[in-house]
Amino acid sequence: MDLSAYDIDQENGIILSEFVNITDTMTVQDFLGNIVKGHQAQTLKIFRAGKSSTGGDTPKTGTETLTDNDVLEVTAENGNVKQYTIKLNQ
Known about the structure:
The chain has one helix at residues 28-33, and strands at 7-9, 14-16, 43-47, 71-75, 81-86. By secondary structure, it is mostly beta strands. A hairpin with a 4-residue loop joins strand 1 (7-9) and strand 2 (14-16).
């Protein structure tokens, strides 16, 4: 997965950005549109803070807007799941 539009803190699992303004008016579709998947079988979903697919929660839809601490959940082609907390620009 290439997050070139975003900065990712791998150690803490946080996504920030100096290049793209991540705000509460950005839609899920717009956010995900800035990500180039590393493998076509990867899946990318955005969940509300504290929610996930493992908890049986429903991801946000493409037209919903981001909120601080939303979670990007990346499922690799081999089934491994990694979560990243999205931090809005202040």
